[in-house]
Amino acid sequence: MAGPLHEKCVAIIAEGPFNIRGKIPESVSDRIYFLGNQDFNGFEHHYHGSEKTPNMALEVTDNDGDHQMKFVVEVGFSESYEELVEDARMWFEGLASVVVVMLVKVQEHPPYRCPINHLSEAKFV
Fold this sequence. Notes:
A hairpin with a 5-residue loop joins strand 2 and strand 3. The relative contact order is 0.15. With about 120 residues, the chain is of the alpha+beta class. The longest helix is centred in the N-terminal third of the chain and has 18 residues, at about 5-20. The chain has one domain (about 5-125). The model has no long low-confidence stretch (mean pLDDT about 85). The chain has a four-stranded mixed sheet, sandwiched between helices. It is built from four helices and four strands, in the order ααβββαβα.
């Protein structure tokens, strides 16, 4: 599940495409859609039946009116880097329209630990 840190990473990354969108002709920008945290299950080949929820995706409407996903952002906190690479592989191999997958692996050092987790209820109140 995407949390506030996921969303902040995505917002920083999205600034670039959002800024560029305002500088290209309207006839082109009207065909570009930004999707956030939407389930996707249209994979092909051996990924058929799989479901993935990218943190962000950019979809373009082609001249035939078909929507094609082109750019995907996957932000990982709890996933390992290897799991993120597998996600990218699924996007590239399972969806021919995808041309860019951006992986963001966030590692905390030291890992976050709740500062009040060890307190009893009596000490907490």
